[in-house]
User: What shape does this take?
Amino acid sequence: MTGRAPSRRRLDIVGWSATSPFGTGRAAFSQGLREGRGTSAPLDHEQWQVPAGPACLVPDFDVRKVLGKKGTRSMNRVTGLAVSTVGDLLAELDRPGLTPETTGMVLGTTGGSVQSTLDFTRGSLTGELPYLVDPGLIPYGVMNGAAGQIAIWHQLKGPNATLAAGRSAGLLALNYARRLLLTDRAEMVLCGAAEEYSTARAWLARHTAESDPDALLLGEGCAMFALTAVAAESDPVAQATASLVGVKALTSSEGDWEAVVRRAVGQLLDDAGITPADLWAVSPSAAAGAAGKAEAVIAQDLVAAGGGVRLPVAELLGEAHAASAAFQLAAVLGRAEADERAAGRFSVVTSTDEAGTVAAALLRHY
Amino acid sequence: MDVSDVTAPSAQRSDRDRVVVTGLGVFSSIGVGLGEFTEGLRSGRNGVSPISAFDTTGFAHANGCEVRDFEPAPWLRRWKQEELGRAAQFSVAAARMAVADAGLSDDELRARRVQITVGTTDGESQDLDRLAAEWVAEGPQSWAPQIAGRVGAGRLSAAVAWEFGLTDSEAVTLATACSAGNYAIGMGLDAIRVGDADIALCGGADAMCQKSFAAFYRLGTIAPDFCRPFDKDRQGILTGEGAGVLVLERLDSALARGARIYAEVLGYGLTCDAHHPVQPEQSSIARCVRTALDDAGVRPEDVDLISAHGTGTRTNDVTESRAIREVYEVPPRTVSLKSMLGHTMGAASALAAVACSVALTEGFIPPTINHRETDPECEIDCVPNQSVEADLKVVQNNGLAFAGNNAVVVLGRYDGDRTPATVAG
Assistant: This one.
């Protein structure tokens, strides 16, 4: 039967990787972060039919160059980013030690690839007949297309899920992975989130901008994490650099973002029996508008109460929507791995989404 | 395992760990609300009509299973209808109906930790259709901000939390295509089992759209008239729409407030084919069924009814029935609700789970309608055309999807203090 004793388990993070505007892989991500390097760059407007202005793209990312020409003819950018990132993550894990049937995959998204969805429907609307559409696009016009391709490419046959949760998708994916492990539905779960830059996304962002649309700076990419459950008292898994202590997701239904963010973080710290002084770092999501301001206030309060450093992420990588919280997690892990003062201490990642979700995760560094 | 002990894991579980269904909300082409829906299931109603959601010019045939005259407004208290796309209107309205059916007030809901999980294939699909049309006509610079602002698929679940004014609520949209409703039920179950939530509102929602119809049409899988699962002359699916939402809570919580219990969620299983983007794979489906039965603590011979994914395509029906036979020496009766409801995408397995709950409570098996002659390659009794009375204790609900996302949920009848799902013999 499924286990129902989360208190007796610990979830170790045994690997991670990222494909980001810093470049491809964990090392490039950590280095970019250490240097505090901004990634905003002018766009090639011949390639991108988008509003004027820069963006933070994964440099030189071309699906067919990265993954080869076999099986990638119709593959969209978000799928390429996700398949490639999982490949990098698996390369650093003990691949032969993984059982395909018990290895899960959880991918967070905003809406899959809105570009692919709209391209497909535009094809139906403009074709000679409405069904003369490219069948190769069909799997990518559905939101679980990327996670399905990850499974095929990397032969992952355990629970395979796609969560749509906007900016908080990375943390909700982490929580879903946590439950899969606590209920013994998988021995290892690869989880994270991906977002592609596209014409459709650029225009959606512009039409829904909370503040000056000309100040929008979109990012993209994917970060993936490998988690496994171990007995709470056991030593850390060899390659683990942190464990996931908890995830708390709430909803801001009354408009008071600050109170809800404070509550989510407060509950995590209380449940773990720690205080802000035990924190090594805090990473707010830097969302636009009131939600992001609320996160910033809570982060400031935590830092003022001894809660370590505040890690900027979106300031360097742009607004990565579904990938944003996954990038924050990667940033916390990457920076902590290079700082021995992090050992034994904790970090908080917070995220908010315009639909109302407030999510926070608590990590403990080894 | 000893025969007398077959259901022991469930029976021996404390009331705190057992999870039951105490509320049902349903919008479907064969009925809105549990009464109409039950009557539709019992009488074998066909939800088919000519598609009205989009211009079908150019398609040789265009039948579907729409929710005609859907009126969300009476169900929306906080939201204004125009603030939500049709899919979110479905999810919010079905959640409202399910919560009312469970006898919970908004205040009672707000006092609990609520997991909200809504499965979907296409998200806010009619809005996305509109954006595509607008792109063709004028370009994306002319998109309406209101439509652009509501296409995030996360809204299908977040809008439910906002409607009830919930704070202590994790709202997640599961975008695992046509098995997403079962994924959502599984996630609700686990959130309660691990102690993250007291109650779960889970299910699925999708709205009829051109994108899905054109895709299935292009694949040659849209039936010209009716959906005839497991029939030797079947010609494919009919796309449909709607929503089903189930209220799940711990048994002790349900008993304490004297709630009506429709069914017990015994367990579920998830597997991924890792084989093909749109073709199902037999062994992976069979593995999913075994995983679900293991989780539920039941053996194949304990299962009285299978609600099949049963789309009505040759590929699905043959592969799925063979997978069932791989697990079951003698399969129980196996019906396809899609014969009546069409393929409601992310809502499909949620609506099927509602139907399974009704079947357990009311003691009948809904039929596979439009049936003439069973395909000899599908060696199952699909209960053709007429519902039958049946004493059901355990029901298995299959959900399969593009991307090889398989999800199977097992429901059991709740018989008060008696051991649930007692094995006969």
About this structure: The first strand of chain A starts at residue 9 and ends at 20.
